[in-house]
Batch of 3 targets.
Target 1
Amino acid sequence: MLTESLLINGIIIFLARILDVGLGTLRTMFIIRGSRFVSWCLGFVEIMIWIWVVSEVINGVKTEPWLSVFYALGFATGSAVGLTIEKWLAVGDKSVMLFTRKGREVSLTLRAGGFAVTELKGTGMDGPISLLFAQVPRKRVRALVQQARDRDESCFIVVESADSGYSLRPIAPPRTGWRVMGRKAK
C-alpha cells in the first residue's frame, strides 16, 4: 500500500538518485577530459548521496518494496538528466574536417565568421578537393557547419572530439657545466 509517508520517502529517494546519477555522468565526462579535481569533487558528492540512498532502500525494501521502484526510476531519469546537462554545458572542443570543392570560398566565409581554419589541397576521385580543418568549442560547431553549408551545400563534414589532454612540453636542453659534473660520459 502506498502511504503518504512512503510516497514522500520515495520521492526523496527518486530525486536523490537523479542527482547522484546525474553527477556520475558529469564526473565521467570530466574524467575523459582530464579534469582531476572537478571529477574528484563530483565523485565525492556522488558517492555520499549514493551511500545514503542505498542504505535507505536496503533498510526499507523488505517492508516497502515500492522503494526499489523509486530507486530504479531515479536511476533511469538521472541518466537522461545527466546527459542533458552535459549537452547543455558543452565543455570541450570538437575537431571539424570539411571536404569541399569550394575550399577558398568556404575558408574565407569561416574565417570571416571568426573561425581559425587550416586549408590543405588534395585530390579526390573526381579531381581536386580542399580539406579544411578547424578546432572549435562544442557550442560553436553548429554555427561553423551552418556557415560551411551556406557556402557549399554539398561539402562533406566530419566532427570528432578534440582531446585536449595532451600538451607539448618543450624539450629540455642537454645538461652542461656543473649539472653534469660527476656523471660518467656515455
Target 2
Amino acid sequence: MDIQSKLQLVQEKYGPWTAHNIEIAPGIFTIKEDKADRAQQRALIYAGLSTTLLKRKNIKGLKILDLGCLEGGISIALSLQGAKCTGIDVRPGHLAKAEFAAKSLKINQRCKWILGDVTDPSLWLEIGSFDIVICSGLLYHLDAQDILPTLKRINDKCKKNGMAIIDTNIAPQPKQRINIKESTFLYGCEWIEHPEDRNIEERIKHSWSSLENNKAFWLTERSLCNALIMAGFGSVLKQLYPYHEWAHQTRDIWIAMPGESNPNNLPLRADPDPRPIPHPALKIQQ
C-alpha cells in the first residue's frame, strides 16, 4: 500500500490532522502542502535554544520530553535532527497519528509515545530524566491546583545540566488568584475548557482542550516566574529573539534552568506589580 493510501486510512480511523502539518514523504503532508507548520517553526527555535544554552553544536543524542505532544510534530521535527524524543498525550488518536508519521519518516526508533495525563503522578514514575523538557501549549490548559505540582515534576525530570522550555499563554492582567500555601498566591485568570455537561466523547473531539478539567488557569508572567522558582528551578529566562510570533500578545517562550533555587534569598516577584507604570522622571520631562 502506498503512503498516500496509508495516510487516508489513518485519517478515516482517527480523524484529520488538526495541528501538525508533517511532510511524511516528498510532497505528501498530513494536512496540505501550502499550510504553514507552527510545530516545525517552534521546534527549530527550541533546537536553537538548546544548542545555545546547553553549549552544544547540535541536539543529536539529547533526550527530550514533549508534554502534551498532540500529533507529534515537535517531537518528530527534533527527532529528524537526531534527538531521542518521548511524547506524552492524553488522547490515543493523537499518538496513533504521531506514530504513523514517525514510522513513515523512519525515525520511530528515536520516538517514543506514551498515553497519559501529565497531572497523574503515576505517569511520571515510568519515565527517566531528560536533557530538555518541553511544555508547549499545555500549561494554560491545566486546572489551577495542578500547575505547581506539574512544574515540580518537570523540574524533577530535568537533568541538572538540562533545561525546560515553557511555551504558553499568559494572563494579561491578575484578575484572580489561587492560594498555594499560607499567604502565597499565584495570579492570573480562569479559562473555560469545557461546559460541565460535555460528555467524554465530545471532550475527546475537542482535541486542543484539556480532557478532565472544565476550567484552566492562565498565570500572569510574574506568577509564571514565581511558580517556576517555587517548583525548584534556579533561574527563569525569556526568549525574545529568535521568536515565533503568534497573532495574539499573550503567548511567548520562557526557559527554566535547574540549579540552586534562589541562592541570594530574593523574594518572589511582586504580583500584582505594585510599581507605577511610568518612570518617575518622566513627569519632570513633560
Target 3
Amino acid sequence: MDDNSWDELAAAAQTGDKNAYKRLLGGIIPYIRAIIVPGLANVDWADDIVQEVLISVHKSLKTYDSTLSFKPWLTAIVKFRRVDFLRRHYSCRADRQVPLEDTAFIESHVTRDDIAGEWKDMEGALKRLPEQQRKVLEMVKIQGFTAQETADRTGMSVSAVKVSVHRSIKKLKAMLE
C-alpha cells in the first residue's frame, strides 16, 4: 500500500466508509512498526505503542486535513506516542530509585571528587536562571513531565513551555562554556 492509497483511504474513512477505515488501519501497522522498533530497548513494547498510535489515529482522524498527505500526519502521531510511552515507562522505573541510606551509591555517584566540580558548576548555572525558567526546565528535563503536563501545572501554553526549555538550555550552555 502506498502513500496515495493512505490519502484516499483516510479521506474515505472520514466520510464514514468502514471498509476504507479498516484497510487504512491494517495498512499502516507495518509502517508504524518500522518506525518504532529500531529504537526500542525492548521489542515487546512495539505492540503497546502500535496500539496507542491506532487509538490516536481513531480518535483524531476527524482532524486530518484530507488536502494534505496522510503520511506526515501519521508519522507525527507515531513519534509523539512513542515518546509518551517511553517517558511513562522510564519515569516510573523502580530500578532508578535509590534509598538515601545506600552509602555505596552515594559514595560512587554523589560525592565523587572527580565530578563534584561539574555538579557545582551545573547547580550554579541553574540557580542563575530566572525562577520560572528554572522551574519549567526542571519539570521537563529532570522530573520527566511532558510539555502538556508542565503547561497544565504552570498555567503556561505548551508552546511557551517548549520555548522556555529551549532558551534555558541555550543559556545553560552559554554559562558553562
